[in-house]
Amino acid sequence: MAAFAPPTDGVADVYPRNAIARLAVAAALACGALTLAQPASAAGPFERGPNPTDSLLEASRGPFSTSNQSVSSLVTGFGGGRVYYPNDTSQGTFGAIAISPGYTASWSSLSWLGPRIASHGFVVIGIETNSRYDQPASRGRQLLAALDWLVEDSPTAVRSRIDPSRLAMAGHSMGGGGSLEAADDRPSLQAAVPLAPWNLTKNWSGVRVPTMIIGGENDSVASVTTHSQPFYESIPASSEKAYLELNGASHFFPQTTNTTMAKSMVAWLKRFVDDDLRYDPFLCPAPRGTAIEEYRDTCPHS
């Protein structure tokens, strides 16, 4: 793929568990009359945290306190970064998400996302890329390398918290384009969330990973009409997918706290990384509000 440097506008650009979860829900409903006096139990094996509410998902932090530590640039396959994780070890292991910044940007441009997502029960690694100028395909490989590092080589305090079968990724701009590359390359991933994604490749018909694409209505770098929307439409209807377009948002909406983006992103990750059916109502039917210009999806989720 030919290298391309988009304008920066003076800103750095930054085994089938669904079936298990549904059976568990059905069983809980079937015997509910007999267990009213018993403590509430998890409807699925990967539920983490309390029942979700709008206020919980819109808060700056979720129910888990978190810690974080830096990742050395001497690691193999990506440029280091920072990892965030829940302090709680009583509820079992967590899914893990790798996130890439965009062209010319560092992780600091997206760093608000690290503790926010981790506080909902995920291990999150925000990566630095090998070069600020890496193209989407390279960023996709680096995201996969970061997930491999988390699972295989990260410190015990991090690695022991991760379920290696529940992995996902996200990224902004070329990092978002990289998350599509990674989803195409590794279909075993549980979720992908490209944010204002940029990529010269427009056809992602090979993607089978549940993917939520979030675009900005007024993006002048990766216009939704030539990037986010055709990316979404090219993913097969048989795949779980959603397209959220933020009203009036520019290319740089992920670089500052964005409640609508974070709420939908966390709900998508909880639903597909944790198979947590409690988050379906926040995705299906389609969310509405003044901050949302458009929403497309494949509801109902199977």
Automatic annotation (TrEMBL):
<dbReference type="Pfam" id="PF12740">
    <property type="entry name" value="PETase"/>
</dbReference>
<keyword id="KW-0964">Secreted</keyword>
<keyword id="KW-1015">Disulfide bond</keyword>
<dbReference type="GO" id="GO:0016787">
    <property type="term" value="F:hydrolase activity"/>
</dbReference>
<keyword id="KW-0378">Hydrolase</keyword>
<keyword id="KW-0719">Serine esterase</keyword>
<feature type="domain" description="PET hydrolase/cutinase-like">
    <location>
        <begin position="41"/>
        <end position="300"/>
    </location>
</feature>
<comment type="similarity">
    <text>Belongs to the AB hydrolase superfamily.</text>
</comment>
<dbReference type="InterPro" id="IPR041127">
    <property type="entry name" value="PET_hydrolase/cutinase-like"/>
</dbReference>
<feature type="signal peptide">
    <location>
        <begin position="1"/>
        <end position="42"/>
    </location>
</feature>
<keyword id="KW-0732">Signal</keyword>
<dbReference type="InterPro" id="IPR050261">
    <property type="entry name" value="FrsA_esterase"/>
</dbReference>
<feature type="region of interest" description="Disordered">
    <location>
        <begin position="42"/>
        <end position="70"/>
    </location>
</feature>
<protein>
    <recommendedName>
        <fullName>cutinase</fullName>
        <ecNumber>3.1.1.74</ecNumber>
    </recommendedName>
</protein>
